[in-house]
Design brief:
Layout (H helix, E strand, L loop, with lengths): L1 H21 L22 E3 L6 E2 L6 E2 L6 E4 L5 E3 L3 H4 L23 H4 L16 H13 L12 E4 L2 E4 L13 E5 L19 E8 L2 E6 L2 E6 L3 E3 L1
Antiparallel strand pairs: 1-4, 2-3, 4-5, 6-7, 8-9, 8-12, 9-10, 10-11
């Protein structure tokens, strides 16, 4: 019976030691040999033509541009002279530098009132700066849907049938009392020396007077004389 107890206790002791070897306690017990640290990576210099003056990392003297008198590391972009490369080639290379994040200011800002605010967040400041591109896009969208601001001059508002909306003022010509509206029956070739204006077929113009078979018309910013047989009054 005693031999059986001794064998059981010996087996329990061996199992506990095997478990401790697999899962060592933190801060206690002998630990297995760890992996050796990787050796530092040296600089990888290559011949480089410096288009701009660059200081040497060792002697701090300028490297002459447009010449092969210098070397540059592929990773950290450090420049050295040919005769200074032996003194710095054994040093550790820091590697590539991390690029900082830069926001593209041409994209609109997402305001808290648009994206939704979380519970407990402070209300947005009314004096906060708004991206001008976003403001212009929102203004253009409101014009496209016919909900433009009311402070626009009435000359940019018009009505066609039952539709009411906004339009550019330079696309419309006002007809004053005593003037008549004409449509060109055919294309007319103009002549600047004689003061005649050229018209396209079916072009609309406003007549302001008639002299010797010619009608003085205006179309936008253009003014001139057009033969009366080429026009039809509307």
């Amino acid at each position: 019976m005693q031999r059986l107890k001794r064998s059981l206790s010996l087996r329990t002791l061996l199992r506990s030691k095997s478990v401790e070897s697999l899962f060592p306690r933190p801060g206690g017990g002998a630990q297995g040999p760890g992996t050796p640290p990787s050796p530092p990576r040296p600089h990888g210099f290559q011949q480089y033509v410096f288009k701009k003056h660059c200081p040497c990392e060792l002697c701090r003297q300028l490297i002459a541009g447009n010449s092969r008198q210098g070397l540059r590391c592929k990773a950290c972009k450090a420049g050295v002279h040919l005769w200074c490369s032996e003194g710095i080639s054994h040093q550790r290379c820091p590697g590539k530098t991390a690029t900082s994040f830069c926001r593209n200011f041409s994209s609109p800002l997402l305001l808290p009132e648009q994206g939704g605010s979380a519970q407990g967040s402070t209300p947005p400041d009314p004096s906060a700066r708004v991206d001008p591109v976003y403001e212009a896009l929102r203004f253009g969208t409101s014009l496209a849907h016919g909900t433009g601001p009311t402070e626009l001059p009435p000359s940019t508002q018009g009505k066609v049938g039952d539709r009411l909306g906004f339009f550019p003022a330079n696309f419309v010509q006002r007809v004053r009392p005593g003037e008549s509206v004409w449509r060109s029956c055919r294309a007319v070739q103009g002549d600047r020396e004689q003061g005649r204006m050229s018209l396209r077929e079916n072009q609309i113009c406003v007549g302001v007077g008639r002299t010797q078979g010619l009608i003085r018309v205006t179309s936008g910013r253009k003014r001139g004389l057009v033969p009366a047989e080429a026009l039809t009054e509307i």
